[in-house]
Amino acid sequence: MNDTITAKREESETVIEFDHVNWKYADTEIPALREIDFKVNRGEFIGIIGVNDSGKTSLCRLCNGLIPHSFTGELSGNVRIEGEDVRNTQTARLAKRSGLVFPDPEAQLSQLTVFDELAFGPANLGLPKEEIIETVNKVLHLMDLDSMKSRSPYTLSGGEQQRVAIASVLAMNPALLVLDEPTSNLDPDGTKKIFQTMKDLNQNEGITVLLVEHEIELLAEYATRIIVLNQGKKLLDGTPREVFSKIDIFHQIGIHVPQMTQVSESAREDYGLWPNQQDPLTLSEMIDLLNL
């Protein structure tokens, strides 16, 4: 009996699973994804990195059923979201489980006010009006958007629009929040705020986060797990410290490791400093290392 209970608990803790997944768009010869195989467990904050055309966006599209329902191509292997196969599940049903935020927030905005934007998804799910209002007000407060609820989304700054886009997805109460380069059009301050928001949602609200980003330093600081894609394949998968220690691999594929890690590695190779210390990932870790 204990074994059965454990098995059920483990199954329920898997939010999304990629089981030897291959995907090739109909108008291309080279697969966008090849033998992708990993699970995302509830409560994880996973950063996805890779050079352009490494398969990151295709991976995001699989997370909410855009592939294969909205794109033509060849899919093999299985993608299961909370146990449901994306092939056999309508995208509207998948939207309750996995929400996707695009790089350009305006591509996701369509309503006259911020409040209406957040209410749009739950209304399409057929939820009662009272429940929609309660949910929207909760998410407005959670995302610090209360003062903007009557404004047009198109009058907001880029960072504010991105928060509205994230909030509109959260209003659907998904088990998984997937973000495809959400800070690509933001300044450093806006970028840091988005990362901090993701950390708060992950740690305080229990939201599982899958974040595609180029901001290596911030991923090293905020993510609990890093997956590196290269030419459509999963190249590395582990904690930030485990992954970013593979400096030679990063050099080969053309991605830099966190700046503090590079500094530490250079100091060790050029001057013999800190021979027995692990490389720092963040500025605070570098300061601790200097104080040894």
From TrEMBL:
High-level lineage: Bacteria, Bacillati, Bacillota, Clostridia, Lachnospirales
Location relative to the cell: Cell membrane
Family: Belongs to the ABC transporter superfamily.
Entry-linked InterPro entries: AAA+_ATPase, ABC_transporter-like_ATP-bd, ABC_transporter-like_CS, ABC_transpr_CbiO/EcfA_su, ECF_ABC_transporter_ATP-bd, P-loop_NTPase
Keyword ATP-binding appears in the UniProt entry: yes
Main localization (coarse): membrane
Lineage top rank: taxon: Bacteria
Name under which the protein is recorded: ABC transporter ATP-binding protein
Domain ABC transporter: 16-256
Pfam families: ABC_tran
Key words, A-Z: ATP-binding, Cell membrane, Membrane, Nucleotide-binding, Translocase, Transport
Membrane topology term: Peripheral membrane protein
Signal peptide stretch: none
Annotated Gene Ontology cellular component terms: ATP-binding cassette (ABC) transporter complex
Molecular function, one GO term: ATP binding
